[in-house]
Amino acid sequence: MVTPVRVxxxxxxxAPFVAMLWVGSYAKTDPAFIGIPFFYWYQMLWVxxxxxxxxxxxxxxxxxxxxxxxxxxxxxx
Length: 77
Known about the structure:
Strand content: under 5%
Order of helices and strands: HH
Radius of gyration: 18 Å
Number of strands: 0
Largest sheet: none
Shape: elongated
Structural class: mainly alpha
Number of helices: 2
C-alpha cells in the first residue's frame, strides 16, 4: 500500500542516487573548500547526507510499522 510516509521514505532513499548519478551538476573544481576541489567535497558531503537520510527513512519505516499493528500485537493485513 502506498502511503505518504512510504513516499517520503522512498524519496529519502532515492535522493542520494540521483545526486550522485547527475555528474554534470558537480563535475567542476570551483568552489574549493579548504583547498579541496568541489568535485571531491561534494561527494563526501553526500556521504553524510545519505547517512542522515537513511537513518530518517529507517525511523519513519519503524514508526509506520508500529502504526500498522493490530490491538492483539499482530501485523495488520
